[in-house]
Amino acid sequence: MIPFRVAQTALMGIRYSDHAKEPPGCNIYKLRQALGLSQRAVADKCRPALDHTTIRRLENNQGYTQDTLERVARVFNVTIQELFLPPELAEWPTLPEEARERIAASIADSAIATKYRSHG
Question: Which domains does the chain have, with CATH numbers?
Answer without folding.
Answer: 4-92 (1.10.260.40)
